[in-house]
Amino acid sequence: MVNVDNNKITTFNESNGLTNNYIASLLIDEDENIWVATNSGLNSISLKTSKVIKFDIDFAINSPEFQISSAFKDTKGKMYFGSPNGFYQFTPQMSY
């Protein structure tokens, strides 16, 4: 992530909160959080605080492996992430 105000670069990986270093898909929600689908779960990164939140089995993601380039955000802001077993749908504002 690059902060254009101060040109600071922040790298996100397993050592600072991502569930896995393999990134299958990225989406940005209406609050400018980055949603990162990996092959071990779904993560949300706040651009304001750099906080990483993990969404996995605790959030009813039974198969946390996500497929490459299989993410979609609809016109109402709902996000869909594809897995080998189908799609998981999230409403970002209701996920926190």
Description:
It is a single chain. The protein has 96 residues and is an all-beta fold. The chain has no helices and 9 strands. It has a 4-stranded antiparallel β-sheet, with no helix packed on it. The mean pLDDT is 87.
CATH class: Mainly Beta
Which topology does CATH recognise? N-terminal domain of TfIIb
Number of DSSP-assigned strands: 9
Main sheet record: 4 strands, antiparallel
Class by helix and strand content? mainly beta
Radius of gyration over C-alpha positions, nearest whole angstrom: 13 Å
| N-C termini distance | 22 Å
Number of domains: 1
Describe the global form: globular
Strand proportion: 35-45%
Widest β-sheet, arrangement of strands: 3-4-5-6
Q: Estimate the mean pLDDT confidence.
A: 87
The arrangement of helices and strands along the chain is: EEEEEEEEE
Low-pLDDT segments? none
Percent helix range: under 10%
CATH architecture term: Single Sheet
Oligomer: single chain
The number of helical segments is 0
Features:
N-terminal domain of TfIIb, globular, 4-stranded antiparallel β-sheet, mainly beta, 96 residues
